[in-house]
Amino acid sequence: MKIFLDTANMDEIKKANSIGVIDGVTTNPSLIAKEGGDFIQTFYDICELVNGPVSAETIAQDTQGMVREGELLSQIHEHIVIKLPLTTAGLAACKQLTDRGIKTNVTLCFQASQALLAAKAGATYISPFLGRLDDISHDGVGLIRDIAHIYDNYGMKTEILAASIRHPKHFVDVALAGADVATIPANVFWKLFNHPLTDSGNTRFLHDWSTVPNNNIEQQVQEWLKNRI
Predict the structure, then answer these.
(1) What is the pTM of this model?
(2) Following DSSP, what letter does each residue of 101-159 receive, concatenated?
(3) Nearest-CA neighbor of 56 among 33, 84, 36, 94?
(4) What 3-state DSSP class applies to 83?
(5) Catalytic status, residue 83
(6) Quick one: 192 exposed, middle or buried, by C-beta within 10 A (0-12, 13-18, 19+)?
(7) Which domains, ranges and CATH numbers included, belong to the chain?
(8) Catalytic entry in 83, 95, 103, 226
(9) What does the pLDDT look like over 65-96, one tens digit per residue?
(10) Which range has the top average pLDDT, 22-36, 97-111, 197-211?
(11) DSSP assignment, residue 227?
């Protein structure tokens, strides 16, 4: 499963990207507005930093406007993926942009029928929002599972991009359910690394190593290599 970071904050992206496991970035108008500054330059900077898809969302609500904005945004960088709402106008725009070779991410998906329609329209990604479904006592992870089943039934190529992930359990659950991508905020990303047994185990190893005589690894390796010459 690929991991996308859901943010427009360059510092967050740089820090997470330095680990080497980030495959792309998703943004939305709210995230872009939160950061301020030139939003076109922000998209470009993110694309230059992350070697993978970067979702940039259209603002227009009509098909013609979405297509026009999508064509313009796609010129910013080869990594740009055009994010469209799951409306009739959005799906019509998705079909037109797909036919023109522009990658799309259809967002705000809340039921399997919508995901099937997006795949029929040629969406590169479908973004089901599981956290928002959980908020109203619906089964968000179950939706991911249903979409994966439908796509597998018919060999559909649209990738499931699980969105609105709130915590590490969501992350694991969508991986088990068959999501192709999970997009997560930075605070959730860093929680994925943490476990108390990892911390206590590492502390124990370091304590035991401190009891070893001449335990400078760099020095010992250099001396060993010198003696082999």
Answers:
(1) 0.93
(2) T--EEEEEE-SHHHHHHHHHTT-SEEEEBHHHHHHTT--HHHHHHHHHHHHHHHT--PE
(3) 84
(4) strand
(5) yes
(6) middle
(7) 2-191 (3.20.20.70), 196-228 (no CATH)
(8) 83
(9) 999 999 999 999 999 999 999 999 999 999 99
(10) 97-111
(11) H
